[in-house]
């Protein structure tokens, strides 16, 4: 069975500092991987996705993520955080067959001045 | 291009009642998936509809049921509501099912069961 672990429940970062959110997955084959962001009371917005090819993927809002098969990880990074990046971030994994997305529990990001 | 829309935005029901939530998929998409997101948790997959047929189901009881219409919009029905059904219900649409599918989410319907 596929699963996703986001080890950090809560991260506090200063505005302008770098951010890295961790995601580890368990899946028997090559997974399809996603990062979504959710602002309070809102739905999920897709930040980026990995299907195959270049293991470093670029997304919207200046985010990037790196797929590391050997570590079963897909960590999300941003070089310089803005106050508007305060939100909850979800990593998701999907298999090659039907469309169930398995989400992690999320990481809440707080940005301080 | 119109994104995924959901109605209503908020809903209050009492235990034992029934509720219907609605979702309009993004233009060009023929697949709709439903998720339940309890407070402080990640979304949990309920089921998916592809071309009006159920295409997979998560660990939810039969009192959670759905429909997809010829225009690919969808409904989620929950019978005999329980207090634990209080959650944000998210609809996501995509083009095709399986494979390199990307799901785009609506804003959700927040359901409170009293």
Report on this structure.
The complex is a heterodimer of chains A (113) and B (114). In chain A, 0% of the residues lie in helices and 52% in strands. Chain A has no helices and twelve strands. Chain B is mainly β. Chain B has strands at residues 5-7, 10-13, 19-24, 31-37, 44-50, 53-57, 64-68, 74-78, 87-94, 104-105, 109-113. Chain B is globular and about 40 Å long. Chain A binds chain B through residues 4, 32, 34, 36, 41-46, 49, 51, 90, 94, 96-106, and chain B through 4, 6, 31, 33, 35, 41-45, 48, 50, 55-56, 58, 90, 92, 94, 97-108, 110.
Number of helices of chain B: 0
**Estimated share of beta-strand residues of chain B:** over 45%
Largest interface comes to: A-B, 25 and 31 residues
Gap from first CA to last CA of chain B: 37 Å
Descriptive labels:
heterodimer, A: 113 residues, mainly beta, six-stranded mixed β-sheet, 12 strands, 0% helix, 52% strand, B: 114 residues, seven-stranded mixed β-sheet, four-stranded antiparallel β-sheet, 11 strands, 50% strand
């Amino acid at each position: 069975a596929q699963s996703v672990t986001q080890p950090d429940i809560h991260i506090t970062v200063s505005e302008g500092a770098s951010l890295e959110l961790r995601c580890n997955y368990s899946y028997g084959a090559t997974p399809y991987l996603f990062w979504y962001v959710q602002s309070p009371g809102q739905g999920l917005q897709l930040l980026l996705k990995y299907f195959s090819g270049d293991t470093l993927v670029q997304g919207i809002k200046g985010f990037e993520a790196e797929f590391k098969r050997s570590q079963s990880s897909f960590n999300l990074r941003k070089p310089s955080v803005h106050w508007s990046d305060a939100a909850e971030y979800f990593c998701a994994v999907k298999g090659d067959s039907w469309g169930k997305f398995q989400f992690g529990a999320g990481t809440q990001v707080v940005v301080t001045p | 291009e119109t994104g995924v829309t959901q109605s209503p935005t908020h809903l209050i029901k009492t235990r034992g009642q029934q509720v219907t939530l609605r979702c309009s998929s993004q233009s060009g998409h023929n697949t709709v998936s439903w998720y339940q997101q309890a407070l402080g948790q990640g979304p949990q997959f309920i089921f998916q509809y592809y071309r009006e047929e159920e295409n997979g189901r998560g660990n939810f009881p039969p009192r959670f049921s759905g429909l997809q219409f010829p225009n690919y919009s969808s409904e989620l029905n929950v019978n005999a509501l329980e207090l634990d059904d209080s959650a944000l219900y998210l609809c996501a649409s995509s083009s095709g099912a399986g494979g390199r599918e990307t799901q785009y989410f609506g804003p959700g319907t927040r359901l409170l069961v009293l």
